[in-house]
TrEMBL record:
InterPro entries: Amidohydro-rel (IPR006680), Metal-dep_hydrolase_composite (IPR011059), Metal_Hydrolase (IPR032466), MTA/SAH_deaminase (IPR050287). Coiled coil: none annotated. Keywords: Hydrolase. One of its GO terms (molecular function) is hydrolase activity, acting on carbon-nitrogen (but not peptide) bonds. Residues 62-412 form the Amidohydrolase-related domain. This is Amidohydrolase-related domain-containing protein.
Length: 443
């Protein structure tokens, strides 16, 4: 009989989705957590004698690993609905103007806190977030309790943070120090060169060398739409992916945002370097950028993960709608008989953890991993009966069904409310920024 003491016992979960190698799903299971780590996974009766500081009854609920969003710009939640009826290039024009009026460190911290709270309430426990003032962004995100991977952003021009190139390099060199001062759940180091249309090949090369020195990953936008590809082809006689290869970027663990229009050679290059795609179907469809052929990528051993993109192009940070869109688009393109719902769910969990280099710590429910967990309340008309659990997760569950969230064993969402951020206060602060933006834009 097990008699040891644990920090938290989540007991009696009606279903436990492990997303482990065997993709096991257990019924009537419990798990125990100590120091943020999963220590026991067993049938409820076997853990009944554990002494726990916190006990949580998960009857009627699905216990699953937290979702991982591999491409977003959380602070852009402040610009939700600001750039409508435009394609990518029109979107960038409109958003960059609004950003210059709104985004300073204080507002980036606020916008990222808002984005992090929205993400957590929807069951996303880890985000790969690219934005200017990444230290402010990280503070905002950590204050909400999310596992937040941010990193210094690189552009050829000063941008609204006003940083010159050398200052960007300096910030990157100090980034690990910045992360440890701010604290929060452990995250890997990432550098974030924005795109091949905003960085010269020589600057890309510098970032890639720095990333290798720092053992850092890289997050970058690639081949989001056809005019981006045309622009790069005209300028360098290469595809954006070929440019990444020749500048050495792919030597580091790379997550490519969007990757909608990749040639067969591009796919081979990305697969050869073990890069991963952050497939953002919501944003891609809304901006009319195109639909990535993810089956083709996967058939060529190119890993596919899922992202929302920022709120000014996808309008929300709901990974469930991304999961459902990815599945529906997959069926439409490849035939419903080829769709495996469990594989789509893996893209939002363990596949993303692998792409981030975090497969030993998150992405599935296994002993020894960090407790990044969500509970989904099945006591809803749209979630009964339950004949096929992965079909339910992919095609029926929505963010309002997420009742509780733990990150690193910390209970950051309880009964669908953030335990760390007071919503009325957050809402009042966001409203103030929004009023200022409207006033400025009328001038
Ligand atoms: Zn993006």
């Amino acid at each position: 009989m097990i008699t040891s003491k644990v920090d938290t016992l989540i007991f009696n979960a009606s279903y436990l989705i492990t997303v482990n190698k065997e993709n096991q799903v257990h019924k009537n299971y419990s798990i125990a957590i100590t120091n943020g780590q999963i220590t026991h996974i067993a049938p409820t009766e076997e853990l009944a004698h554990l002494e726990a500081k916190n006990k949580f009854d998960a009857h009627g609920k699905i216990l699953a690993p937290g979702l991982i969003n591999t491409h977003t710009h959380l602070a852009m939640s402040l610009l939700r609905g600001w750039a409508e009826g435009v394609d990518l290039q029109g979107f960038l024009d409109r958003v960059w103007t609004a950003e210059s009026l709104t985004m300073n460190p204080e507002n980036v911290e606020l916008g990222t806190r808002l984005g992090a709270v929205e993400s957590l309430l929807a069951g996303t426990t880890t985000t790969l977030d690219m934005y200017l003032f990444p230290d402010a962004a990280h503070k905002g995100a950590v204050s909400a309790g999310i596992r937040h991977i941010s990193g210094p952003i690189f552009l050829d021009f000063p941008g609204l943070d006003g940083l010159q190139w050398e200052q960007r390099i300096e910030l990157a060199k100090n980034w690990q120090q910045v992360l440890s001062e701010i604290g929060g759940p452990d995250v890997p180091t990432f550098l974030m060169p924005h795109a091949t249309y905003t960085l010269s090949p020589s600057h890309l090369k510098q970032v890639s060398e720095l990333a290798q020195q720092m053992n850092a990953g890289i997050s970058i936008h690639i081949s989001e739409n056809l005019s981006e590809n045309d622009q790069i082809q005209k300028k360098y006689s290469k595809t954006p992916t070929a440019l990444l290869e020749s500048s050495g970027v792919l030597q580091s663990q790379t997550i490519v945002g969007h990757g909608v229009h990749l040639t067969d050679d591009d796919i081979k290059i990305l697969a050869k370097f073990h890069a991963a795609i952050a497939h953002c179907p919501g944003s891609n469809l809304k901006l009319g950028s195109g639909i990535a052929d993810i089956k083709k990528y996967q058939d060529s051993n190119l890993a596919v993960t899922l992202g929302t993109d920022g709120c000014s192009s996808s309008n929300d940070l709901d990974m469930w709608s991304v999961i459902r869109l990815a599945a529906n688009l997959y069926s439409e393109r490849n035939g419903a008989e080829n769709l495996k719902a469990d594989q789509i769910f893996r893209m939002a969990t363990i596949e993303a953890a692998k792409a981030l280099g975090l497969e030993d710590s998150i992405g599935s429910i296994e002993v020894g991993k960090q407790a990044d967990l969500i509970l989904i309340d099945l006591n809803k008309p749209h979630l009964i009966p339950l004949h096929n659990i992965f079909a339910q997760l992919v095609f029926a569950v929505g963010r309002a069904d997420v009742s509780d969230v733990w990150v690193d064993g910390k209970h950051v969402v309880a009964a669908s409310k953030s335990t760390l951020v007071e919503f009325s206060q957050l809402s009042a602060q966001v409203e103030k920024v929004s009023i200022r933006l409207h006033e400025h834009s009328k001038k």
